[in-house]
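Pair request: fold both.
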Amino acid sequence: MSTIWTPRGVYRRVDYESEADLESAIVEVQRRLFGPNRFYLDVKNKIGAKGSIQNIPDGYLLDLSGAKPRLYVVENELQEHDPLRHIAVQILQFSLSFEGERLGVKKVLVRALEKRPEVRKACEEYAARREFRNFDHLLEYLVESPFSALVVIDEMPENLETVLSKRFQFGVEVLELARYESEAGERIYQFEPFLEEVVGEPISLERATPVLSPDEIDTIVVPARAEGFQEAFLGEH
């Protein structure tokens, strides 16, 4: 069992009791998990055209951190549920439902933002700053953009990210959110923040850090063993 030692004591990794338990943890750590200018909308509404594939995503992530806004459909999952097969099917169905009724997705977002006035205000300010006509135009841009998915899982199965990237032509990001607990019942979380390497929109004109949008990234660096390099890079070009 994985453990973390701190001056306050030892924390042991513990399982989530259910997907609802995982979702509660996501809400609790959302600001640190997703980073500045990204807003998690914990809403569950059916999307998809009538008579076609309809699904209920676990939520949406509204990304206003870069030069272009992005919308991610979120799937929260426990690794014990055969994630490779289950997640792949869910994401495919989400993409079909999303593309089949984009207006329905927009309505879901409007209702969700009515309940989150601080997020709506952030959207309106972003729209004005980025020369969208208004808040409504921003939402139209989001739902008409290519489908993107985000998977939040309690434990990362081997090759999950690789399998998903090979299976789909659209973007799929994966985050692992592990939970640890002390003997006193205190809980802490371990995760790698969402797109941590991507520099977001500057807070002020004086900030010297350059802006980098996820759309501008075209290269990744990964470790490779000799056997894998020969087989994939050379053998498969």
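--- second member of the pair ---
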Amino acid sequence: MPRILFRSILGIIVLSTTLRGGQAPQPIPIDDFESGALAGWTVKVNGAGGWFVYNKGKTAPDPSKSDPNVPFDVPDPPQGKFAAVTDMNGPGSRIMYRDLKLDGRYTLQMIVFFVGVGRFTSPETLDHDTIGANQQFRIDLITTAAPVDSVAKGDVLANVFATSPTDLDRREPGAVTFDLSRWQGQTVRLRLASVDNQGPLRAGVDNIRLEPIGR
């Protein structure tokens, strides 16, 4: 049966799939958060709150960092017992990222959801302490040399997902997919960023994985 090999070198996830007997390649998990921790991720927070692993949609993972005036109320983890989510008790920018070294052609797949307060806005910055509203959740591929909070065109390789001013303030868990074939043989940085300065924006993700293409 297929063997999926994982090696971690200086925080970079190196992915490879070994096939036997002509069987179809299997999905390669990046993180389903079933470890109960954010192992392998780097988190950068400016302002209040952070990224957390949680297991109950109506129970804040860290009540001391959750706004009691807008109770924590997100979907239960859509896959398994745990998922990752942002929570906060004030304005902030919360970034979670990790590097992926791609040894072949893959489709990035994950489950995404969010629960917010107020209308989304998408200024070209991940700084919450800015003039005007900044209320957004986005997932990007960026270069490993870029500042982790940069949204400059030369730093962002591709936008995988982004909220829009026309979105409702709640998204139930749903699949997001993105073709990574263009970066075969390269190392890319997967960044998840949630920013709010108008009210809590709890953004979540689960079951992040790679689907091999054409193997």
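Observation on the second member. Residues 3-212 form a domain with the Jelly Rolls fold (CATH 2.60.120.200).
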